[in-house]
């Protein structure tokens, strides 16, 4: 597999030539085989002689708005750029989520703060300072779009009213702070005074003894689960704040749980077989898929509180996981993407950059295919299409040079990618 990088302003170069601002200008594009390999660097000249033309040592063409094709000899690659990007210069971004209606972004930071952005204006509209004592490791928006679940490196999970809403303002003691950001569409640096709210969490959940590695909401969110490096997956009930159940691998209870996803079990659990049924909501058909440091992916029946026979065993740690239809999408620490169907126990693998882990995954259905957006080390963001048993992939480009993805999230219509200082928006095709 090759890593393709391109000048982050290459579309601005094309736009300037198209508009006649300059008669010709060039940008660079590079290819390398791995993170530690030397790259081959090429320059492409854009000129306008009645129509925009590309020339250089590689073939380059614009296929449609935001989609390009480049050929290095016989090897051709598709490049896709974001619909929009927003620079965030105030904090080191660690997590992102978008509301179901697409109107707001929730962003977690290394400082432990949470901020919200208006997606239409790309401006920050609310924040919670010191939401966690250490970095925010994940943010999750409830289906109502009114409540946020956050997890932190302080071993806790917390519930918050959505920052920037009247509910959050009523719970806040506000003063004003200045957040700097720039909208890449205009490249204008802007300073905006945004309420930086000191808000008490609606509820704090703390039980696990090591770092929380992920969380999933179940149904409408009355129950949620958190995975931890202590080997546990805790099922919580929001109203009481209680741990309903704890799941561990029977064969290796301390095996670090590195990621988790929510799916469906083979058959609903009968009411009389529910464990602590009075604290379960939308759980009868729900199953947890947990990825472990041992290379195991284990399915658990939530309502029945048992480990099922569905298990995938790989030879490297599981680093990311998602569920899409019948497929469990698994990323490994040695750069493999594995598609596993628990019902048939079939699996298909794609080897990417095996010197880097698959770090973040978002998956959605497109017709009969599964589309997976994933990061695979520095400057590597791919959109993989799986049409069993075949894989194909495109490169998502146009982010700042030397970027590293910190989080990806899709609401089914828009995909948001967060790097340490940038938010990028991509459309989701159905």
TrEMBL record:
Keyword Magnesium: no
Family classification: Belongs to the WD repeat PAAF1/RPN14 family.
Stretches with biased composition (Polar residues): 167-176
Protein name in the entry: Uncharacterized protein
GO cellular component terms attached to this protein's record: proteasome complex
Pfam families xref list: WD40 (PF00400)
UniProt keyword annotations, A-Z: Proteasome, Repeat, WD repeat
Keyword Repeat annotated: yes
Region (Disordered): 161-190
């Amino acid at each position: 597999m090759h890593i393709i990088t391109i000048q982050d302003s290459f579309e601005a170069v094309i736009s300037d030539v198209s508009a006649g601002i300059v008669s010709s200008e060039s940008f660079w594009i590079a290819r390398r085989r791995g993170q530690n390999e030397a790259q081959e660097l090429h320059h492409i000249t854009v000129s306008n002689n009645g129509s925009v033309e590309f020339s250089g040592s590689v073939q380059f063409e614009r296929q449609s708005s935001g989609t390009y094709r480049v050929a290095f000899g016989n090897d051709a690659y598709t490049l896709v750029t974001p619909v929009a990007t927003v620079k965030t210069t105030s904090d080191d971004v660690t997590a992102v989520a978008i509301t179901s209606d697409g109107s707001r972004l929730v962003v977690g930071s290394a400082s432990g703060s949470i901020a919200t952005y208006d997606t239409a204006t790309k401006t920050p509209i609310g924040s919670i300072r010191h939401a966690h004592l250490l970095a925010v490791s994940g943010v999750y928006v409830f289906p109502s779009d009114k409540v946020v679940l956050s997890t932190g490196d302080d071993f806790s999970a917390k519930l918050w009213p959505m920052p920037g809403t009247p509910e959050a303002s009523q719970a806040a003691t506000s003063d004003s702070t200045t957040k700097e950001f720039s909208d890449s569409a205009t490249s204008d640096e802007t300073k905006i005074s945004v309420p930086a709210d000191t808000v008490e969490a609606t509820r704090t959940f703390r039980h696990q003894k090591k770092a929380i590695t992920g969380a999933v909401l179940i149904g409408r969110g009355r129950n949620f689960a958190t995975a931890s490096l202590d080997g546990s997956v805790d099922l919580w009930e929001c109203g009481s704040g209680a741990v309903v159940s704890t799941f561990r691998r029977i064969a290796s209870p301390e095996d670090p749980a590195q990621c988790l996803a929510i799916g469906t079990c083979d058959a609903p659990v009968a009411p009389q077989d529910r464990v602590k049924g009075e604290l379960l909501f939308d759980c009868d058909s729900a199953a947890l898929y947990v990825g472990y440091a041992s290379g195991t992916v284990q399915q658990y029946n939530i309502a029945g509180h048992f480990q099922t026979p569905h298990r995938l065993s790989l030879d490297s740690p599981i680093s990311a996981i998602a569920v899409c239809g019948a497929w469990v999408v698994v990323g490994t620490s040695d750069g493999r993407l594995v598609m596993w169907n628990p019902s048939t126990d079939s699996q298909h693998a794609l080897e990417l950059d095996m010197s880097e882990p698959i770090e973040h995954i978002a998956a959605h259905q497109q017709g009969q295919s599964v589309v997976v957006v994933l990061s695979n080390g520095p400057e590597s963001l791919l959109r993989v299409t799986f049409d069993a048993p075949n894989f194909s992939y495109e490169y998502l480009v146009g982010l700042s040079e030397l970027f590293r993805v910190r989080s990806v999230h899709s609401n089914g219509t828009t995909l948001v990618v967060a790097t340490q200082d940038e938010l990028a928006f991509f459309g989701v095709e159905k």
